[in-house]
Design goal:
- By secondary structure, the chain is α/β, with parallel strands linked by helices.
- The protein has two domains: 203 residues, Rossmann fold; 163 residues, 3-Layer(aba) Sandwich (Rossmann fold), CATH 3.40.50.2000.
- Helix content is 40%, strand content 16%.
- It is built from 15 helices and 14 strands.
- The strands form two sheets. An eight-stranded mixed beta sheet has the order 3-4-2-1-5-6-7-8, with helices on both faces.
- Helix 4 runs parallel beside helix 5 and helix 11 packs across helix 14.
Length: 389
Amino acid sequence: MAYVGPFRFPWGQACSRRVHGIASSLAAGGYDVVVASGEEGPAAPSRLAEVDGPGSVSHLGLGELPSVGDNLLSKSAQVILWSGRTTLAWLDAQATKPSHVIVYGGGTQYMVRLRRWCRGNRVPLIADVVEWHSPRQLIGGLFGPIHIGAKIALRYHYPRCDGVIAISSFLEGHYRERGCRAIRVPPTLDVLGLPVNAPPGVPDRSGLTVVYAGTPGRKDLLANVIHGVDRVARAGGDVRLHVVGPSPAEVRRLLGAPPPSSVRVLGRLPQPDVSNVLRQADFSVLLRRPARFAQAGFPTKFCESLANGIPVIANLTSDLGRYLNDGVEGIVCVDHSAEALAVALGRALRLSAEERTVMRKAARERALESFDFRTYATSLSGFLEEVRA
């Protein structure tokens, strides 16, 4: 089986975590998966030893993506004129054609070529769909080639694939309404393999430590998080926020002022260090507007927090309501405002140490049940067999 697309595979990026999770589920179900990414990488498949299952996952780089230093004209030409040609040449060179091709992140030109190849070679094509970007999130905006290409792929090419793996109920419903075979698989990771005590213990300290970990971009309302924490701290609440990902300069630009004393900006950290920061916190925090992009996607950081045994304080977007029960795996904010977060933080401050311990255990158990890649091995394998039938 081939998992292809113009994405980068280095561990730690959201796209690579998604690909790694789906590929690991398929390997656990007995498939041998070759991940052919768009970055420069090994020319021959290099097996990933850490995958758990009767199958395997190997990775190679096809160099589909423009180089970082290329100018805009060169990047546009790469995407519009040549996107997908290297992938097709690699597929043609295989002695045995893959049983399935799964595509992640393919724009219009990439999909035109890949769909034609799969039809001609009678290989089922499955789209892994994880986003519905708003124009303001993409370079060039509404009339930019990236947005137009992504929109055509979402509305025209993906519904014409043999199947769709959707990250959310929103996307699953969208493609089922168009007559597509679709299966919903949220973000997954190796929850079982994380070195977390069971049940995780609450750090022996007073007050409340919360953490935001990620790249806010135009999705996460980090400014609202900071203002909510500051609101509680100014009212005398013993609460502190650790921000992982954005640099101090980026946070200052976001706020238009230095962050308050209750906020510590740690900047970008290696993935193991991010997990360590999470485990030392009482809660992670996430606020998003209930816009279409938020309902269609699913925040990987939410799954990673629960996997590390850390409850989440968040407003409900996408499918979070399936996994975040108020007072069980975390605390639900009534909306995405700083004021709503301040109310939720006040509730968290009133919890006893024993109540926090119970909540951390529930977070970990939810992640094991819902976000471990092994959970979806059987359903994904059955879906692929259905698509091939």
